Amino acid sequence: MKEKNRKEEKIRKLEREGQASYFFQSSPIGFITTIILLLAGIGSIFIYHLLFNLSILISIIFGFITWIVLGVLIDKIVVKYIVRK
Fold this sequence. Notes:
By secondary structure, this protein is mostly helical. Helices cover 92% and strands 0% of the residues.
């Protein structure tokens, strides 16, 4: 019985996180955050290329990875904050 309740609670938590992520991404703050993350990713391309003297192709790949990692981290932090409230 306890195991069934844990599974149900886990499913509810995943549903709340999914809804919070959707609401965050569809809000104006989510849009602004997306633009800021895009600019951070583009800026990191130039940083990798100019400061670390990497080729432009490697810099683009690292910039893309940076953009994805920042996006995932920010999304997880914000969703946890929204779900707690």
